[in-house]
Fold:
Amino acid sequence: MKDNKLSDNERLKEESNLLRGTITDDLKDSMTGGFKGDNFQLIRFHGMYQQDDRDIRQERLSQKLEPLHTVMLRVRLPGGIITPSQWLGIDEFAREHTLYGSIRITNRQTVQFHGVLKQDIKPVHQLLNRLGLDSRATAGDVNRNVLCTANPVESSLHLEAYEWAKKISEHLLPRTNAYAEVWLDKEKIVLEENEPILGNTYLPRKFKTAVVIPPQNDVDLHANDLNFIAIGENGILKGFNVLVGGGLAMTQGDTSTYPRLASEFGFIPLEYTLKIAEAVVSVQRDWGNRTNRRNAKTKYTLERVGVEVFKAEVEARAGVKFSDPEPYRFTERGDRIGWVRGIDKDWHLTLFIPSGRLIDRPGLPYKAGVAEIAKIHTGDFRLTANQNLIVAGVSDDNKQRIESIALAYGLINESLTEQEKNSMACVSFPTCPLAMAEAERILPDFVSSLEKSLVRHGIGNESLVFRITGCPNGCGRAMLAEMGLVGRAPDRYSLYIGGNKEGTRIPRLYRDNFETSDIKEIIDHLIASWSSQRLEDEGFGDFVIRTGIVSPVIDSARDFHLQD
Ligand code: SRM
Ligand code: SF4
Structure:
């Protein structure tokens, strides 16, 4: 008989008093730097994860010391937009009050502080509040930070699309007053509270939403549960194509888990956007698996009930029928590094930030540089889903000054290569508790080795979408790369190949669990074949599929785990 017992996370949500738990008591307990019992999980709904530095874990253990507990805190920034004065506030906090002194731009267009000690947690929430920011719903079983294509102030659709990303984020936020009470010392509301959209036990699992403006797929829509593809007419947004059920994670050794592309539901006029968002969330809330968290995401619900059944229920709840999808095409995912002039005649400077890590290293004071720009910038900043930063809305008058600062602080780097621009890694060691192998810290080494292979085989002018993720959870989105590495153990990776440049195909396992040095050799052979046998302008991912080096993943539920 199947075990229908609810997962323990369901119990803790149920008993949490709408996310309050006993976090306030835990904060007063100075005997430990960590959070106890259910609070360890509950703080996630408030945008924080308990961590410790894995580089020094053993050393502390051998000294019989508790791990150095800190939290990582993730800010809510729909569409990744932040003002210069907000930036200066978070910059100062990172410098003065975190163990690492860094700000990490994430691939979901927001920032993380790593290494916040217990006594600084409440102050950071109060600071965010003063800045007009918060960290609500950036983690936990809720709708996370809503993405929006960052690049084009070149497109008239961008402003409207961004406004929708913000509205969707607000509409799907938890309604509980817990955040204000626990962190901002607001009075407890005595009125009957409930969660009309998310439900009082919240969603079965994390939920991700993106708004994307073709031809850019910079947000990597297929990583998301719910996607709105902006469809314009004469430069005005008229509605969205809706895609549901994307996601990239898998669990090692469990073939019931797999990355999956989102399914096309169809087009809806603009006025139904929030109704559709709410309906998709509520169907997943009611139908998602609450007994097994590994199979709890929307992608598995769709596979279990069938795409058409899920879609019909969304239509019934939203009171609107999807029409046929409107035509659209994606051509790129990367950020256009450097200056572009927008249709508004303002200038926009996209800065390449290696793995989104803003920190001041000797000779590379990136974090200080962005703060210097913030002091004179009159537009805003936009964080991209490729972990970069756009200085947006620069007037002719300010352009030269901003460029001078960016050059002085190494933020404009003339020797930046196409391969560096097309590569990404997740955080991984030392802060991520789930990391199996290095990612962010080893990316430069892998990229340099890949570049040497490209040059060795006579195609030094080429590049491919290359990504590393430190474990099968897939945060580095290797499962949408032309070539992706998934960490298996220290110094060991699995190699996946065959995604495409646009991010609409999942790569297939090519070599499982090899040492770094072997992986580099295997990559070199693949690059040699690509160089000698490719068709004109054929990308690496398309090449390995056409020549049968791997077969394409067509329906991941059925064929992702099949061996070639
Ligand atoms: Fe992620 C968990 C970092 C994007 C799938 N992710 C984690 C945690 C919080 C580890 C943990 O649970 O304790 C990592 C914290 C590391 C650290 O020290 O900072 C972490 N994920 C990240 C970030 C920072 C990676 C980055 O380098 O940018 C990204 C933060 C995004 C944000 O601002 O919200 C991040 N994570 C992703 C993505 C990519 C995306 O969403 O576009 C994915 C794959 C897409 C998807 O969800 O399918 C992703 N993260 C996961 C999973 C697997 C979820 C699942 O379906 O099973 C976990 C583990 C979990 O949830 O149990 C996870
Ligand atoms: Fe951590 Fe794994 Fe996510 Fe990388 S992929 S940040 S190692 S959970």
